[in-house]
Amino acid sequence: FFKAVEHSFTGIFSVELLLRVLAAGIVRFFLGKDWAWNLIDVCLVIVSFLELGLELLNVGGSHKLTYVRMIRLAKTVRIFRVVRVMKIFRPLRILVFSIMNTLRSLGWVLFLLLIVIYSFGVLFTMASSQAISSGSSSDPALLRQYFGSLWMSIASLFQAITGGMDWRFSADALMTLNPIWVSLYVGYIAFSQLALLNVVTGVVCQTAMESAAQDEDIIMQARLALQEKYVAQLRRLFGDLDADSSGKITLPRFQSRLQDSSLKAYLDALDLTTDQAWSLFKLLDVHETSMIDVDDFVSGCLRLRGTARSIDIHMLMYESRWTMNKLSKIMSAVQELSSSVGEVREAYEHCLHLAPSQGSHSLTLQSPSSQTAVRAAAKQHL
């Protein structure tokens, strides 16, 4: 049964991968921003088919068992894909993603730590070798145990600052040389513990936080979670305003409820100002029905939340420029129309002066030939 289920999931996973390749294209699939996850998915499909092939070939002996174990171990990478997709694993995803992005900084940290340990190790090894060869050390065996060679000195210094051993033991070995070397050793311990390791911890933590803040999926999940929480708070607030559970809020009811100091404090906590209840109600009443339902209330509060963003200001400037351009075109059209009307009026007055008298003018205008003459004169004047 479990084999059948596993083979079914392998087929479904293969079809899903094929559809993703066809939808995104081969180049975008392997060279896009999610190329690493896509490559992992391809490897998982290949590993699943390899396991299926080994079962069909019926390879016997311990070789089959070894191959199957290796393949099943490789298939555990599917866990990372589940962690990436499911929102419930968001804290674990942040930890894994932060650790992966701090590996580069951690490498430089280890390199710096190695330089410091190597420098002090060379000094202590040279001093120990000279003391042992000259016989000036009171306990050569103890000195050889911790600083007998360069690698032993490096190991002792590394264990002293990482908790592998009590640094007092290696300090007692240096005490057989000279107290000056003990003072230098204590200075190394103080520098490593108080300065170097604390700086290293700070750099790694900062890198982890920056990498987590730059991950698109983590940012999207955080924003969606924050918006869902904010919408839930707004719906509870609407329930407090809608005391009669009618599903609507009127302006008088809205104004009376905003007088409550606790409600005003709650709105301020949601980044919503309540200085003018009437203005706030009109901004929320987008349908101009003098009533607000829960959907209008939530969507309106989401728009009015916080201060104006840069995109809001630029959008307002764009709409102002668009309105001014339209008004300029309308004013130009009105001016052209006014000029045309003035010219027609002047032409009409000019035609009136062509008539010999008022009576003959009336008669002339009534005849078709006179009307044609007036039109010709007006056209010539224009």
TrEMBL record:
The chain crosses the membrane at residues 12-31, 106-125, 146-165, 185-205. One of its GO terms (cellular component) is voltage-gated sodium channel complex. Residues 2-207 form the Ion transport domain. InterPro entries: EF-hand-dom_pair, Ion_trans_dom, VGCC_Ca_Na, Volt_channel_dom_sf. The keyword NADP does not apply. It comes from Alexandrium catenella. One of its GO terms (molecular function) is voltage-gated sodium channel activity. It is a multi-pass membrane protein. Coiled coil: none annotated. Gene3D superfamilies: 1.10.287.70, EF-hand, Voltage-gated potassium channels. Chain C. It is found in: Membrane. This is Ion transport domain-containing protein. Keywords: Membrane, Transmembrane, Transmembrane helix. Its main location: membrane. PANTHER family: SODIUM CHANNEL PROTEIN 60E (PTHR10037:SF62), VOLTAGE-GATED CATION CHANNEL CALCIUM AND SODIUM (PTHR10037).
